[in-house]
Automatic annotation (TrEMBL):
Name of the protein described by the UniProt record: FAD-dependent pyridine nucleotide-disulphide oxidoreductase
Xref: Pfam families: Pyr_redox_2, Pyr_redox_dim, Rhodanese
Single GO term (MF): oxidoreductase activity
Protein keywords: FAD, Flavoprotein, Oxidoreductase, Redox-active center
Family under the similarity heading: Belongs to the class-III pyridine nucleotide-disulfide oxidoreductase family.
The Rhodanese domain, residue ranges: 467-551
PROSITE patterns: RHODANESE_3 (PS50206)
Length: 551
């Protein structure tokens, strides 16, 4: 007897599940029902299609229903909405959105890959025709058509996550003035604040107007929106609005069927992508993930995760044994020439989870400066008690993707900070420095956790200063650099004079050393520790990072 698999939703999760079922079993009947016009597309490529980086729409939608029928013998039905799941009788009620015909479809095994949709603010004006969201190709078409027809000069983008900033770049590049509105006090809310400041500074250099710590409460205009009203009372004149404040899972159908929901309303699944109802699986942006680090539920809808989940669901329901191993919440995007990447947990998440985090800011070039190396800032978070790496955030220009992937691999396999130095990474001047920034990050954290070379963040130092703690701050740079700019109340003892002047310092006081980026500050710290000083800290990331953090 042939098995019949029905999949609700296509795109990444649903089509991956279908493909895996077919690879495992040639005799299964497979049907996919999807509400959209386009069943397989690159959602991450949509901003670049709008910004004319991608000229041909077909490049975003390479696979259609005919492709899946021919290659996988899968029947795909576009513009079909599943209205009800009857899990007892294993029957779906389905509506053809083009003909309004309603019919029933039986299944033996069901996969829910219903995805997610944009969050819509409950404020006046959101229904206007020049307020856009970007979740699928049709929405991208509407934005592109509006721009071509109306030649807008300005846009307000609400939200500074991945899509918001990718849209910022692409709209700016086609001559549209961009204003960003973010309800948090920083851009890129997924980053820690001390890394977001680097992105903010760069956006300012690109003439992007940013309004932070404020929310949109009304969109004004008669027929179309021409003014955005903020909670603070500020108003922004605009030609159109792009809302990019996040997504929520499409799980109403699952909930009505008695399927258990988890974090953020996503479908609760086990490692086999099974729901609480027999023979019903879920995958993709509608399903719950879990953190490799904490083991706790996590909702991070990304195409890469959806593909992985779909493959596992398809394998399990057709006799395989693949299991989901969790995620780190990894993300990467570019904004003009800058690349921003992150993986694992942030500093604030580490604190809330009960870890005792050790933080380092490593400022290094991706390759030698003589071979066009460009600086990147790596923030790494480790657990003091276990020495394990918990998370990494990188802001830079070139080579960021390479480093974040090494950190991801290390965290996934439970690496300790001391292990990073021992990695046999590829080196040649066109590609890296002799001690790669990944290795150097491990060295800094190993020194801090295991070798008594403690770090102090700019925020921690400023709190000491504000509390009028008895602390001596030593600028270990040359006199000229000190005179140009230095930390308030710092004294200048250049590195080559530390040994001879160490006896003039009080060994009982807290001493903080620093240089430009941290290396010479660490050298000065080493000298003092070796001379018997007990409470010596080096500023994480040196004066360069301190200056960026101190307003």
């Amino acid at each position: 007897m042939f098995m019949k698999v029905v999949i609700i939703g296509a795109v990444a999760g649903g089509t991956s599940a279908a493909a895996k079922v077919r690879r495992n079993d040639e005799n299964v009947e497979i049907k996919i029902f999807d509400m959209d016009y386009d069943i397989s597309y690159s959602g991450c490529g949509l901003p670049y299609y709008i910004g004319e980086e991608i000229g041909n729409r077909d490049e975003l939608t390479p696979r259609n229903a005919e492709f899946f029928k021919k290659k996988y013998n899968v029947d795909v039905f576009r513009r079909h909405e599943v209205l009800k799941i009857n899990s007892e009788d294993k029957v779906l009620t389905i509506k053809n959105l083009d003909t309004n015909n309603v019919f029933n479809e039986k299944y033996d095994k069901l996969v829910i890959a219903s995805g997610a949709r944009s969050i819509i603010l409950n404020i006046p004006g959101v229904e206007k025709s020049n307020v856009f969201y970007l979740r699928n190709v049709k929405q991208a078409d509407k934005i592109k058509e509006y721009i071509m027809k109306n030649k807008p000069k300005s846009v307000v983008i609400v939200g500074t996550g991945f899509i918001g900033l990718e849209m910022t770049e692409n709209l700016k590049n086609i001559g549209i003035k961009v204003t960003l509105v973010e309800r948090f006090n920083q851009v890129t809310p997924g980053l820690d604040e001390d890394m977001a400041v680097y992105v903010e500074k760069y956006l300012k250099s690109k003439d992007i107007n940013m309004i932070l710590g404020d929310s949109v409460v009304r969109l004004k205009g008669e027929e179309i929106v021409n003014q955005v009203v903020l909670q603070s009372g500020k108003t922004i004149d605009t030609d159109f609005v792009v809302m990019s404040i996040g997504v929520k899972p499409n799980t109403e159908l699952a909930k009505e069927a008695g399927i258990e929901l988890g974090i953020n309303g996503s479908i609760k699944v086990n490692k086999k992508m099974m729901t609480n109802i027999k023979d019903v699986y879920a995958c993709g942006d509608c399903a719950e993930s879990y953190s490799i680090i904490t083991g706790k539920p996590l909702y991070r809808p990304l195409g890469s995760t959806a593909n992985k989940m779909g493959r596992i669901a398809g394998d399990q329901l057709s006799g395989g044994n693949l299991e989901f191993r969790g995620i780190l919440g990894t993300g990467i995007f570019k904004i003009f020439d800058m690349t921003v990447a992150q993986t694992g947990i942030t500093e604030r998440e580490a604190i809330s989870e009960g870890y005792e985090p050790v933080i380092c800011h490593n400022i290094k070039t991706d390759k030698p400066e003589y071979y066009h190396g460009k600086e990147m800032i790596i923030k790494a978070i480790a657990d003091k008690n276990t020495g394990k790496l918990l998370g990494v955030q990188i802001v830079g220009y070139t080579g960021v993707d390479k480093r974040i992937d090494v950190f991801i691999t290390a965290i996934t396999f439970g690496a300790k900070v001391e292990d990073l130095f021992h990695l046999d990474l590829a080196y040649a001047p066109p590609f890296s420095t002799t001690k790669d920034p990944v290795m150097y990050t491990g060295m800094i954290l190993d020194n801090a956790i295991n070798r008594g070379r403690k770090l102090i963040t700019p925020d921690e130092l400023n709190k000491l200063i504000e509390n009028k703690s008895d602390v001596t701050i030593i600028d270990a740079r040359v006199n000229k650099q000190y005179e140009e700019v230095h930390v308030n109340n710092a004294i200048n003892i250049p590195h080559d004079q530390i040994r001879e002047k160490a006896d003039e310092l009080n060994k009982e006081k807290i001493i903080v050393t620093y240089c430009n980026k941290g290396v010479t500050g660490n050298a000065a710290q080493n000298i003092l520790i070796n001379k018997g000083f007990k409470k010596v800290y080096n500023i994480s990331g040196g004066h360069k990072n301190y200056k960026a953090q101190t307003k």
